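I am writing to request your help with a piece of structural work I have in hand. Thank you for your consideration; the sequence and its tokens are set out here:
=====
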Amino acid sequence: MAEKVDVLVVGAGPTGLACGIEAQRAGFTLVIVEKGCLVNSLFSYPPGMTFFTSRERLEIGDIPLPSLNVKPTRAEALEYYRRVTDYFHLPIRFQERVVTVQKSGADFQIETEGVWKRQRALEARAVILATGYYDLPNFLGAPGEDLPHVSHYYSDAHLFYRKRVAVIGAANSAAVAALDLFRHGADVALIHRGHELSRHIKYWIKPDLANRIKEGSIRAYFDCTVAQIARDHVCVRNASGETFHLETDHVFALTGYHPDFDFIRNAGVKLDPATMKPYCDPKTLESNVAGLYLAGVIIAGRNTNEIFIENGRFHGRQIAEDLKKKLAAS
């Protein structure tokens, strides 16, 4: 027999937690289903990472985020979200993936799969998708991208001391990785299809990287794409169509990430074919499926630089206000 709740939230990232808090405050019964651990994407960040944004912009549930500096570290953020989750006694099921979300009459039928392939059925009056985007990299589509020395996630620079490393991309993640690798003794080559560094790089990072490139500490190859990745080199194609080889020991393909469009579409949500932005009422955040709401970066489609924790954390309030009107009346 399916367990019944008022609201089911898919995803226990900061936005999903904020949605759960607001739904709970509105008096609804709630469950949050998370395929990984609490704030799984943040957990996957490099251990020594410091956030680009200030602490107050990461806060949810009106709970202050204590940190030694204005910009919190990954460790401080993880501790904060654990404490917030405990404070609100949020009911979260970890290591459980939502497989299907289907509208059935006025309610939703949800199927999940947990550890050891354990199946579970849930029924909810409303569903909030807050699934983020960090789990799905934007692949290059180049031969050799699946080799073991190629990674779409940056880890720790120490492992690459005195190694030749290619960083593909030139936005924030690539910029931070290139600088960190250089400062830990790696030989760094930056490959970017654009003719200059991305305008989205944070203002205090971009001059640092630009100066390292100018002085030759980091080699940069602009207007270039990756034609192939081999065990000991990357084959690079320039704007003229000519190719050359860069000898490498490791490759970080940091070309961004995207939401799970198939999952969103299978839930019945319409997507714009050009931008992949889902249909979403900007005031209520309800999709074209009545009772199915969207929160966080998935609202932006492919334009993932439009929504971050800073603005996605307020989506729960918008949704809760609409839920109070619609669920109370039903």
Summary: The helical segments are 14-25, 40-43, 74-87, 172-183, 206-214, 261-266, 309-312, 315-329.
